[in-house]
Amino acid sequence: MSEYIEGKRPVIEALRTHVPIEAVLLADNVKRDALISDILRKAKAQKVPVRTVRRADLDRISARGSHQGVAAQAKPFPYAGMGDVLAHAEAQAARTDGRALIVALDHITDAGNLGAIVRSAEVVGAAGVVIPNKRSAQVTAATYKSSAGAVANMPIAQVANLKQALERCKEAGFWVAGASEKADQSIWDANLKGKIVLVMGNEGEGLARLTQETCDFLVALPQMGKTASLNVAQSATACMYEWLRQNERA
Q: Who's near 228: CB < 8 A, 6+ residues apart?
């Protein structure tokens, strides 16, 4: 199903961050102001078709009723297969003396968190990200924005069964590390060298029991302050940088 981005400024932001757009839709009676002119310029520069439609048609597709006479129809995100992510990771390991990172997300539900995690994964050189195909955030325009466009450069696989995906990684020689406040060891003391899958849990409940049982070991971030914990995107970033730190020294 297509995602529609509604409103002048959201459409401008989508074009600015290079969200793949099928077409920009303009109401036949929309006022041609400075924002509309900016949309038209950006759409032309990116060779995105602009179609004039009846306002009633925009009203019909609008989820929020705030389209302001303009909407953008986003293209479906091209998810990778699990085999593609593993192949990319193996190629990475071959180039780097056996180092590779895959980030698996156990039902992260916020698209902004997904984007922030993908951004950090791309920055540290992860080979790919794995997400469930149900009860989990998907790649949307909000993900493009929070990832600063990194989703376009990172293989993201949707899987029907996260446990099976983790087992498949194990068979390929990866160690699976789950981030959990219940872990007995600090991530600073854990061995993250080599081929690692880092698993991050749901924003509210953390790792599911079955996911925890599938992990080879659990790690926690050290805490000195009184705040309960970092959010999942911040935690994932800190964990990924510890993997990078250990493997830069390898």
A: none
Instruction: Find, among 202, 204, 197, 157, the residue nearest to 178 by Cα.
Output: 197
CA distance 155 to 105: 14
- Evaluate the CA torsion angle 9, 12, 17, 18 in order and state its sign: positive
pLDDT digits (tens, 9 = 90+) for 103-148: 999 999 998 999 999 999 999 999 999 999 998 898 888 888 888 8
pLDDT at position 3 is 83
CA dihedral 208, 163, 244, 121 (to 10 degrees): -80
Enter the DSSP assignment of 203.
T
pLDDT of residue 191: 95
Cβ atoms within 10 Å, residue 90: 16
Q: Coil, helix or strand for 218?
A: strand
